[in-house]
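FAQ: What does the model actually see?

It sees only this:
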Amino acid sequence: MLAHKKPHLPTKTCPVCERPFAWRKKWAKDWEQVIYCSERCRKNKNKHEDQSYLVWK
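And it is asked to produce this:
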């Protein structure tokens, strides 16, 4: 049996990897303060800011 999808969950975009991420139960109390999708992105936030001028869009 397949797990059901949860399209009704709120999403945000991670400022480091620029990927969307969805609400998780562990973030229920502080969803408004959640900024990064993972610990990896949170730890690399400064590296991303320093190299932002290298990204060509």
